[in-house]
Write a structure and sequence with these properties.
There is one protein chain. By secondary structure, the protein is mainly alpha-helical. It has a single domain, classed as Four Helix Bundle (Hemerythrin (Met), subunit A) (Up-down Bundle), CATH 1.20.120. The protein has six helices and no strands. It has helices at residues 2-33, 41-67, 72-95, 105-129, 138-155, 161-196. Helix 2 packs antiparallel against helix 3 (72-95) and helix 3 (72-95) runs antiparallel to helix 4 (105-129). The termini are far apart.
Length: 197
């Protein structure tokens, strides 16, 4: 009983960390929107918020794996926190003309398009299956890692930023293809199982 309570407490901590990541997004957005050369400190604040949020992503994932439990709230909060943080980062770091280098529009379109397709696919699977278990692929993890590195490099105004956003774009496309293929395989398997009954 005590062990179960300890595991539930760990999951509560993981969900709170995910919630913190979601709540940090408006502060991150505000820091980038109001950034200018005259207010250069805002870029460093945004960098600090982003790195803290990225570390929280690793922390809640570690806690969830250690507890060997997945809550329904965690299945929603964790990917939601990631998507909100990264999508807002890419959009804001493209829109602010005071940043150089900054993300080109084509990178934003790739990142957002993949996430929209994944979300629509997840909804389709849920409608058909009445259940969904979101399991990140290796390519998805690579994609997220390079997206985070790309954001950090732009916030640092590094001359190597284009290299990181090209890598992020390549792995985002690959992971998108993998997720789409997985979705079709799952839907096809469900359709076959229904036809056989």
């Amino acid at each position: 009983m005590a062990a179960a309570a300890h595991k539930n407490n760990q999951m509560n901590i993981a969900n709170k960390i995910s919630t913190f990541r979601i709540l940090s997004v408006p502060f991150f957005i505000a820091s980038i929107i109001y950034y200018s050369p005259q207010r250069s400190y805002l870029r460093w604040i945004a960098l600090g918020i982003f790195i803290l949020a990225a570390l929280s992503d690793a922390a809640d994932g570690y806690i969830a794996r250690k507890s060997k439990l997945q809550s329904k709230a965690g299945l929603i909060l964790d990917p939601l926190g990631d998507k909100l943080l990264l999508m807002s980062a890419f959009i804001c770091l493209c829109a602010n003309s005071n940043l150089e280098p900054r993300f080109p529009l084509w990178v934003i379109l790739i990142v957002i398009s993949r996430d929209v397709i994944i979300i629509l696919g997840a909804v389709a699977v849920y409608v058909v299956k009445q259940n969904i278990n979101i399991i990140p692929t290796r390519w998805g993890k690579f994609s997220t890692a390079f997206q985070m590195l790309a954001v950090i490099s732009v916030l640092l105004q590094s001359r190597f930023s284009p290299l990181f956003w090209w890598l992020a774009a390549i792995f985002t496309v690959i992971s998108g293809v993998v997720y789409i293929n997985r979705g079709f395989v799952l839907l096809y398997a469900l359709d076959n199982s229904r036809n056989n009954h």
